[in-house]
Design brief:
heterodimer, A: mainly beta, five-stranded antiparallel β-sheet, 11 strands, B: mainly beta, seven-stranded mixed β-sheet, four-stranded antiparallel β-sheet
Amino acid sequence: KNEVEQSPQNLTAQEGEFITINCSYSVGISALHWLQQHPGGGIVSLFMLSSGKKKHGRLIATINIQEKHSSLHITASHPRDSAVYICAVRSRGGEAAGNKLTFGGGTRVLVKP
Amino acid sequence: GAVVSQHPSWVICKSGTSVKIECRSLDFQATTMFWYRQFPKQSLMLMATSNEGSKATYEQGVEKDKFLINHASLTLSTLTVTSAHPEDSSFYICSAFSRTTAYNEQFFGPGTRLTVL
C-alpha cells in the first residue's frame, strides 16, 4: 500500500461543475502539499497545509490531521483547470528525514466546455 | 511567491554525450534542492537531495556517477547526466526548499525535458 493514496485517478467534469479530489496518507506528517501539473509538465504549488482549510480563488483545500485525509475542491470548474493534481506529504521527521516529499499518484482532471 | 527556474527547458542530445541542467532559486536562498525524474503518466520519483556545500544524497537505485549533482551555492544546483542513453530520456524537475522564506516550503522548477537519441 502506498503511503499517499489519491482518488479518483481520473475525473472528467463539465465546465461549471464542482470537483473534489481526495488524498489519504498513512504516516505522520508536518505538511501536505497540493500541486498542479499542466500538460507541458511544469509544476505549480497550489497549497501547503498543516491544519484546517485554505482558499485561493476557486480552489479550496482542507485537511483533517486526525483522519489523515485532505481534499482539494475546485468550484465553478473551467477547461483551464484541466491538469494533473498531485498530493504530496512531508513526513513528521522533517529535517531529520531530509524534508523529503512523498507523492500520491496524481488525479488527472479534464474539464469539458 | 518564490520562483525556481530551470535551464534548459528541453534538450535533445546524442547517445553518449553529457547534459547539464541548471536549477536556480531566483529570489530566495535554497538550503536544500531536490532532483526528481518523471516518466510519462507516472508520479515524480526523487533522485537525490543536495544541501549547499555538501555531497548529494542519492536515492536507492540512482547511480551517483551517472547523475552528478553539484550544489555550489544557495541559489544554484546542477544535475549532469553523463554518457546519456535513450533510457535516460525523461522529464527532470528540481525543487528548492527554504527555511528562510515566509512559506517554509518547497518550490518547484518548470522542468527539463531530456530526449536522448
